[in-house]
Amino acid sequence: MTDEIRTREDLVAVVNEIGFLPFFACRIEGFSLEDNISYDAWYQGRWSGKIHWDAWDWKGQVLQNRELVYGKFFEKKAGFISLQLWPDFCNYRREGYDFDARFDDGLASYKDKGVVDYITGVGATLTKDIKDSLNYNKGGNKGFETVISRLQMETYVVPINYEYSKRKNGDEYGWGNCRYDIAEKYWGDKLCRSAYKRSPQESLNRILMHVLKTLPGLDEDELRALLKG
């Protein structure tokens, strides 16, 4: 890969070529945005209380522009997936199950169902509102991050934007509050389910072939492990 990812446009081009890319360094050395980004676009600390980290802002931008899918997809860590491969990710990770069928077969927890049902009912929702409404606060339910990470890994729930608190002068601050939605609601039934005609194994093989065609030097076993999650 290259260390010349300098802009959001560079990122989109790289992910579309490769198929997917973890945000942070992962089990495969050199295979992440962190490993291939220019120094100026990576985390530079805080200036007057504002975080200066171009790459951190790109995730919300690619989502709002509907250029790439972003979320915790790789061993519960964040990364980007091209729209071309997203249907096969959905098919592979869901193992042939829509969420309701997964729950009915005892493969999803009541906490998972609570989050899915809440977002389905109210629409795209900020993290803090989900936690408040489902009592994931001090003294209440525990394990929200585990639940929301699992639902992303299974491709049922996805981030759609990151929204920031503002000071009285209008300056944004903090790391951003994620707004989540059901994948089909944001990306559409057709995109999320168009690979359902294939078996999950066929979808995995399609993902592997796409990535290895572009980066033949990657270790296939490590790539399989990363995709398995």
Beta-strand proportion: 15-25%
Average pLDDT, to the nearest integer?
93
Percent of residues in helices comes to: 40-55%
Number of strands: 8
Q: Low-confidence parts, pLDDT < 50 over ≥5 residues?
A: none
Describe the structure.
The longest helix has 15 residues, at 200-214. The strands form three sheets. The protein has a three-stranded antiparallel beta sheet with strand order 1-5-4. The protein has a three-stranded antiparallel beta sheet with strand order 6-8-7. The chain has a two-stranded antiparallel ribbon with strand order 2-3. Strand 7 and strand 8 form a beta hairpin. Helix 4 packs across helix 11 (200-214) and helix 6 (110-122) packs across helix 8 (144-153). It is globular. It has 229 residues and is α+β, with helices and mostly antiparallel strands. 46% of the residues lie in helices and 18% in strands. The protein has one domain (8-228).
